[in-house]
Structures are given as structure tokens and as C-alpha cells.
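Hi D.,

Good news: the full-assembly prediction came through. Inputs first.
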Amino acid sequence: MFGKGLIKGLKITMGHFFDKKVTEQYPEERPNLPPAFKGSFKLNVAKCIACGLCANGCPNNVIKIESVKDENNKKKLTGYKMMTERCLYCGFCVEACPPKALQWTKDFELAVHLRDDVNLDLFANYTPSPDDEKPAEPKNEEDSAQAS
Amino acid sequence: MKFFIDLANSMRAGIEGMGASATTAEIILTAITTLAVVIFILLHVVVLLLAERRLSAMFQLRLGPNRLGPLGIGQVIADVVKTLGKEDIIPAGADKFVFKLASTTLFATALLAWAVIPFGNGMIIQDLNIGIFYFIAIGSTATISVVMGGWASNNKYALIGGMRGVAQMISYEIPMVFSLLGVVMLTGSMKMSDIVAAQENMWFIIPQFIAFFIYYVAATAEINRAPFDLPEGEQELVAGYFIEYSGIRWALFMMAEYANMVAVSAIAVTMFLGGWNAPFGLTFIPGIVWFLIKLYLMLFTFFWVRWTFPRLRVDHLMHFGWKFMIPVSLANIVVTGIGIYVYRMITG
Amino acid sequence: MLKTEELTLNMGPVHPSTHGVYRCVLTLNGEYIQNAVNHIGYLHRGLEKLAESRTYNQFIPYTDRLDYCSGLANEMAYVLAVEKLMGIENEIPERAQYLRVICAELQRLASHGICVGSFALDIAGSTGFFYSFRDRDRALELINMIGGNRLTPNFMRIGGVAHDLDEYFLNELNQFCDDLPACFDEYEGLLAGNEILQTRSKGVSVVSKEMALDYGFTGPNARASGIDTDLRRDEPYGIYDRFDFKVPVLQNGDTYDRFVIRVMEMRESVKIIQQAIKDMPEGPVMAKVPKVIKPPVGEVYHRIENAKGHLGFHIVSDGSTKPYRTRIYSPTFVMLSAFPEMAKGTHIMDAVLILASIDIVLGEVDR
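Then the structure:
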């Protein structure tokens, strides 16, 4: 019948008029990010074994690794750059990392003023913390990955 | 309400006391009242722009602009400053004179309509004895501005929008006039104060509810509000006849739209909802407050309808106008006429 | 008779209702469309060529960018194709299969949410748009929990899925599915039941069964034209044969049916998700696949019922780690080719609506 659907529509919109609004008032109200969230990256340099699997797994050659071999013929990381301007944020690098040195952070506000600032130098950004040196149990690793 | 009239009377006395003639005093006083009404409209326009955004947000489960000041009131100032600060762009192929004229004339007609709207008893700029006729006549000149804007922009979207605007506004003017005719027949006068005074006991929405419905729909179409905003046609014509306008000229178009919306709501209040008359004998509240309450209720329904309904298609709009609205409004006139005749026969 | 002239109107690529960077040149007689010419390619990124220089695994995130409204479903199509090429399609763990179905149906809800919302927006009922996007946003938040990104989750892997999903996610999903039917009633009340929308869309741009077959319509658009086809039922991939769901088919093939069928399909998707959550077993989510994927020499074509139609991947392998050629069959590219004929003779306002009812996504059209 002509008009019935119109009145029903008016009823629905009026029903929502006094409802609680769904808007998230962003800068004050922070989004509730899930554990799997892919934001920015952080690298635990102490754990990194410079194996290069992350660079291999990357679809877009985002990761540039520099390493030297020390006296024990063990690779040591000397530079870790991420060309994040090309990054797809697919997460293959984080998945590939055997010692779980490369991790996601929940930092999602990645806008910067200068183009050069987009790229990350994870080696330089690293700040050592006392937990890094001791080799962690694999189980604890899982937990810390979950918690972050 | 008494306050404003007393104020006017004391001012008149004051001006005459300074040695001016009665005519000069009248002219000065009219100028002052006109200025007051223009300020009233402009304030309403900017507040309505915010209200539209806030209320539509509430219908859509959003919050709307709420950052600047309490309830986002600062947004009004920010918007005004922004539009004033914008560059005035006139397209290269445009007819410059007509292009500039269109926005001005549209806003001027929107303001002119307010000359006959009674805010309260005795609070009217000019209580013309052809008040409602004047309103209709002024309202129909807006069509010219729309086609001027559409034509002068030298843009195909604008041209289509302008042509749609002409077709729609001319077609919907007829039912609008006919719907108001029923009220005029009941009152026997086109003077606004007479019409309001005649509604002291019963608002005309009760005997003329069909006319009210037709007036409401036709007025929505006349001021290009959704669901009849075809000349704007945001989805296919981007912005219709004012697609090429920017800055203050664009703001004039928007302000004219809102001023027109307030004007048709005020006319609906005057003609059908009893104007300044208080309902249920609540006369201790002044008439102007009642007028404003009714006005805002009408405006709210305009918002409500706009943010609920999708837009009609042009041919359906024309069909609806010519095949439904005009016959029904004509029938309403006939029924009203018979009713008045029978009423007179009975009462002698 | 007044001398009249046809008007050529260029719609797009920058236009509010072309759903991206689609451009179409209309020849108008008054406001009625005499002729329409499609111009596409403004969003061409060469994804098929990119696939040739990426390993099989590395191409998965790129499939998210095909039809960016249904990333998970695209991943599923690609992953299933590669698994078929490797001959391991029967080794996928049960739990991974169920998770894939949940992901695909959740993504279908999100994708149809876009269609319903943009249809409402193109008919100027922006309130319907916001109601639909409110629900789509909840779906996207769930996808964010799945993969860490809202549109490009990169969750499927060759041989399973990236990681297991926890109880918290499943509870949220359950809650979402319980809330949805009331939201669908809302769309139907506000949009489908609205007389203005019905007069604008019923009988407009009717696609007959024959025309739909000729143009190769698939998915909801074909079902709106009376073609009873759904790959989930007809050629069940994964574990779709275990679920009980109806395939809605409408007969008119007009714009209204193409719109309404999407709401009907969303109801069915909710049912599938609920069944999947109930039946999901515990277990691993990844099969034993080699780290470096080297499928045998050969080629494979696999298609799934994406939200918008059949999405197919044709992969030719030369035995190396990278595919020799990847060809993507995208549904909306095919259906967009019917737009000139669908739009012919209609009003310019309807053309916008027809475009919305085809539900094009330019990322998939231009690839």
C-alpha cells in the first residue's frame, strides 16, 4: 500500500534518533586493537640472528639487512632498514622470523611530514632492555607474543 | 510579544518627538524592523546549517560536528569564516554577469518573502492585504535564479540541474497555490493577520488537512529539499545548478535554501497551525514563542523526512505533481467551496 | 518541431557515484541515455604481471587488493587454486577448512554491506548507507581480529590459515550473527519496503535470463535474473557441502531484485557462519607443506563463489617457485561490460542506480 513503507521508514529513523551513537571519538577514545593487529614494526636486535628470512619472505623487497661475520663465523646485524613506503603490511616477515625478533607494534599513526621519515631504521631505533640478553624460553616467547 | 510592540511604539513616539513627520517615523521604523528580521533569518540560516548536520547525524547514529565549542556551536563560525575566505572562482566559459547575478537574486528573493510573515500579533513588516499572494509571487521568481545559475555556469551538469529545477518548481507551484486557496476561501481574506486571527478557535489543519499535506509536499519540492532535491541531484549531477559556484556565492545558494525552508515553514505555521495562537488556552506564553515552537517543529519534520527518504526520479516527480497533487488540490477546493456554501445555508 | 541535439556527458572518473575511478561517456537525449561507453583502466596495477615475479606465497597479500571489499574471499580463491595445483586439497586440516568458511562468509557480509549501503547512497537515502556501514564496520572489526588489518588481512595460507582464532573472537562473531537479522529487517524496512525506492528500481533495466547468460553474469546478479546457480552448492569447494543453506533466486532481473537478493544472501551467510561455529573441531590449522612451494608443471583453474560472482584463478606452473602465468577471472569486469546495454533507454538517475546494483569494484575490474 502506498505510504505504508514510507511511514515505516520514518519510524525506523526516529527509533534511532535517541539511540546511543556508534561514533568513536578518535583522538580521545583509542580504538580497541586486537592482538593480531598489524601496526608498525619493532626489532629486537639482540635476538636477531641476521638470517635474512624476513627479507626473503617479503613480496616487495622492503627489508634491507646488513650484517658482518664475527670471529666465531657468526653473523652479526649491523643495519636493518625497512622501506615502509613500499610495505604491504602483509606480515610475512614477522611470520618468517625464527627467533621472533621482528614484531608488530600497535602503533598505527604512521603519518609523517617528510617522505624520508616513512622508512624505518629498526637497527637505530632499537633501545636495549635488560631482558634481551638472556635467551628466553620458547614458551615464554609465545606468551610475550600473545601479550603484546 | 507585548515588549516588541511597546518598543516599536516608544521608538515611533521618540522619532516623532524629534520633530519628524509620521511618514518619516514609519519609514525609519520599517527599516529597523526589516533589519531585525534579516538578522533573525541569517541567524537561523547559520544555526540551521549546524542543526541539519547535527540532527542528520543523530538519525544516522553519528555525532556530527561536536568539536568546536559546546555542542559544536563554534562550527558555525568556522564555516562562515571558511566560506568567506575562499577564492571566488568563475569558470572560464561562464556568462560572468549572469553567473554573479544568479546567487544574489536567489538570496534576495529568499529574503523578500519574509516581508509578510507574522511573528506575532502586530509583529509583521508589512501586513499587506494580499499577503499570501505576495509570498507566492516572490516564491516563483526563485525559479529564474535557478535557471540563471544553471545556464551561466557553462557546465552540462549545471544545465541539466537548472532545467530540472525549472520544471519541478513550476509544476509544484500550482498545487501549492491551490492548497493555500482553501485557507483563503475559509478566511475570505489574503491578509496574514486576518488568516491567523481566524484560527483562534480552530487551526486550519483540521478542516484543511488534505491541503496541509499537499502544501507540505509541494513546499518541499518548491525549496528543493530531499526527497525532491532533483535539481541538486547529488548522486548523478554532483551538485546540480550550483556545481561551479564556490566560496561566498555558493554560500548564498545554501543560505537561500535554508532561508526558503524557514519561510515555507513559517507560512505553514501561519496558514495551517494557527500562527501565534496558543493551543489549549495556554495564553500566558507569548505568541512569538508559540510561533517559534511551531516553526521548529515544522523544520524538524523537514529534517526527518530528508534523512529518511530516497530521491524520486524526475518523471515520477512530474507524474506525482500533475496526476495526483493537482487533481487532489482542485478537489479540495471544490469540497471546501461546497462546505462553505452548506455551512452558510445552515447558519443562514 | 523544435530542433534538438544529443548531449554527450562525461561521467567520471571523478564523480561521486561511479564507485571508484570508472568513467563512462553517456549520450543523452534529454535526460534519457541513448548510448553509454565504458572506459576502464584507471586503477590498473598489473596484478597479473606482478604474480609472475612473486612466489606463490608472496602473491597472497596482492589478492586482497583485487576486490578490496572482499579480501579474505579472494585469498581463499587463490589459495584453493594453488592447493589444487599442488594436489594437496584433501590434506587441509578440518579446523582450517571451517575457519576459511567463516572468513569467506564474514567477508561476504562485509561486501554485501557495501553493496546495500552504496545502493542506498546512490538513491540519496544516506541514512540507509550509515545503517549498513555500521554493521559492515562490525564485520571489519572482526576481520581485524582475524588478520590484523581491516581490508587486507592476509590470513589464508597455502595449506591452511595463518594462525588459529581464539574463543574470544568466536564469541564476538556469535554475538554479531545474533544481532544481524534485526539489522537486515531494518534495511528492508527503510530501503526495500520504501515505495520511492520500489518505484525507482522495479522494472528498471531488466536483465532477462538469456541476456544474463549471454553476458556471463554470475553470482547474485545472475540469481536475480532467475539463473539458479551457486558454486557453493553446485561445485562445493572446501567443506561447503556440509552446510545447510538456501540459494535465493529471484525472477525479475531488475534493479530492485539485484538489490533485494543481497539482503537475502546475507541472511543465508549468517546461517552458514552459525553452523560453522557450532561444528568446528579442534586441531591444527596448517597442513604439512614445504616452506618453498614448487608445484609440479601444469596448470589449474579454480573458481569460487565470491561475494560478487565467480572469482577464478588460472595458474600455469613451470615447476619453479614462481608461477609462469596467473590469470584472474573477475566477476564485475564481466558484468560491467553489460552496463551499456543495461543503461540504454534509462534515465540518467537510473544509470547511477544500475551501476550500484551491479556492485562494481574497480580494483577488480581493472586489476
